[in-house]
UniProtKB/TrEMBL annotation:
GO terms for cellular component: mitochondrial matrix. It is found in: Mitochondrion matrix. Keywords: Acetylation, Calcium, Cobalt, Hydrolase, Iron, Magnesium, Manganese, Metal-binding, Metalloprotease, Mitochondrion, Protease, Transit peptide, Zinc. Pfam families: Peptidase_M3. The keyword Manganese applies. This is Mitochondrial intermediate peptidase. Signal peptide: none annotated. Binds 1 zinc ion. It comes from Anser cygnoides (Swan goose). InterPro entries: M3A_MIP, MetalloPept_cat_dom_sf, Neurolysin/TOP_dom2, Pept_M3A_M3B, Pept_M3A_M3B_dom. It catalyses: Release of an N-terminal octapeptide as second stage of processing of some proteins imported into the mitochondrion. It is an enzyme of class 3 (hydrolase). GO terms for molecular function: metal ion binding; metalloendopeptidase activity. CDD domains: M3A_MIP (cd06457).
Amino acid sequence: MLAGYRRAFGLALRGFALRGRAVGPGPGPGLGLWPGLRAVSTSWSPVGAAFDAKQQRGSAPGRETGLFGVPELSCPEGFQEAQDKALQESEQLVQKACSTPPGPEIVKIFDQLSDALCRVADLADFVKIAHPDFAFREAAEEACRNIGTMVEKLNTDVELCQSLRQLLADEVVMNSLDPETRRVAELFMFDFEISGIHLDEEKRKKAVNLNIRILDLCNEFLTGTHLPNKIDKHILPEHIRYNFTAEGNYLQVAGLHADCPDDLVREAAYKIFLYPNAEQLSRLEELLASRNSLAQLVGYDTFAHRALQGTMAKNPETVTQFLEKLSDQLSKRTQKDFEMMTKMKMKLNPQNSKLMPWDHPYYSGVLRAERYNIDPGLYCPFFSLGACMEGLNSLFSQLLGISLYAEQTKRGEVWSEDVRKLAVVHETEGLLGYIYCDFFQRPDKPHQDCHFTVRGGRLRENGEYQLPVVVLMLSLPPSTRNAPTLLSPGMMENLFHEMGHAMHSMLGRTRYQHVTGTRCSTDFAEVPSILMEYFANDYRVVNQFARHYKTGQPLPKNMVSRLCESKKVCAAADMQLQVFYASLDQIYHGKHPLQKSTTEILKETQEKFYGLPYVPNTAWHLRFSHLVGYGAKYYSYLMSRAVASMVWKQCFAQDPFDRAMGERYRREMLAHGGGKEPILMVQGMLQKSPSVEDFVDALVSDLDQDFETFITDS
């Protein structure tokens, strides 16, 4: 997933994407021909060995540096110095922009301004949640606040906006700009306008205050989605109490316990964890109302109309059409899935066979395991982390001419000794950028798989290219004395997914950092990562690296086939659940005032788009954390998967190592970031303009079982 982002004054200050956010038009930049590319270093080592080594590697001897090689960040106080430099540079650039006549130089200055702030804000966004030292986290949080204050100031700087507006109004100059520069200028202006820069002073102040309030509400709501609920332990039967954390006379319920085989435990967890919280409900209602007020203040009918500008879908009407058509196509398959789950529940629990929402995840898993004999423990020995990294290295080498090398870090460069630094190197273009791999579990580290942009790529004023820097964060178990880190099939797929984001960042070598890498529309940003899941589930790819860590035996083909087919069991019901979530998100961010309470809307939408009954006195929507980072955009996961499916089937299913197709993929989809309309990138890759029906058909066809595998394993 891409780390959470906020956008202001055209500043894409981005860090996460829950599973989780590229070279302008023309062949020159797209082929990586920027000056300043670096030569291959003799200090790099093979990537696989760096992850399967039994001993942790130390830092290179020599002078200490700061986090990510930023000298100021050798201590928490360095954030103050870094932000002061960024703010001083920003003020100088604002003065320069306001005194520069209309021309391409204006766009360059705006991008420099964006880069100056993002270099601190993006880095701080990561550090504030991932650094093990509280002092670093606190300093990073303060830096984010101070940069945010500067952004709000820029949002209301009429003179700064006027310098850009004069450029856009000069038809002769605009026609002389290359397509990427013209689009970036338009994107900057769009970001001004959605912040209310075109309003009178009183309304501008109102827009600023709404933005600030929305940010506060987002933080408060997000915190509330994760807080546990407590219940008097005597209310629950004694034989299930041990499943929950005890606090005196209370039990703490911190999740849904979806994998627990005991139906009563799952039911209790569902009803307790999702019990309505009045404060959280008030936050959500105010958040939705504030978003709607802001959208209408700046000229949009609804928040969804504002949020979907510049996306593949373009507007909420298209999203609704997509979701309703998909739901119609899924309905019969979903009903069959629910019938299978009901029969399984009846078999295991004859006294209570009615299928409820807390049953879906558990019984779908039971059906997968029973039908295809899937035991993750049988697969883990074949997926050592080092082998998986070598597999990715081999795939990227064949497909894109790219190799991954482990590079030793300097003292102070990383925040934990088990973080690995990878250099991404092209066979002819040289060093493209760096990936910091924060893969292993540690206390207080967030349990989420994420891609963070730390520094975006751009063409600097001196002609050199600013190399992109990203972090991939996973939660893998560490190696032991007797074995390297072993991945379950799900962990392996997640690794491939996040590496898809990383390659997007590395290969999106745009002229402007404002549109670099994953800084593109949300419903396109997940395409490269989801496409990597298709590679991860193809035996021809897996066979290149999956070896038993002790014997060297390759993973048998029938095990890969069974694993892939098992994912299709109850997959229609799983997808239907995602349609429900996406539809709820659209309604919440649609026309206001809402016709009913958010809980009543939840109940109606669940019954229409999901099928399993709403449980009274529960409020799942108050745990829907994606309403913060993906407000009005939750559909993006489904639409991105549809595009990835079409790209896989048309371009890579016949030969996943086709270099010519890999180069086309880079040229048409990875190279542009947000510098080209997303649907145009999809059209370039598929050589056609996909319709809503094409998106739906692609998703539904993925649910069809492979007849040969099904018969063999039956």
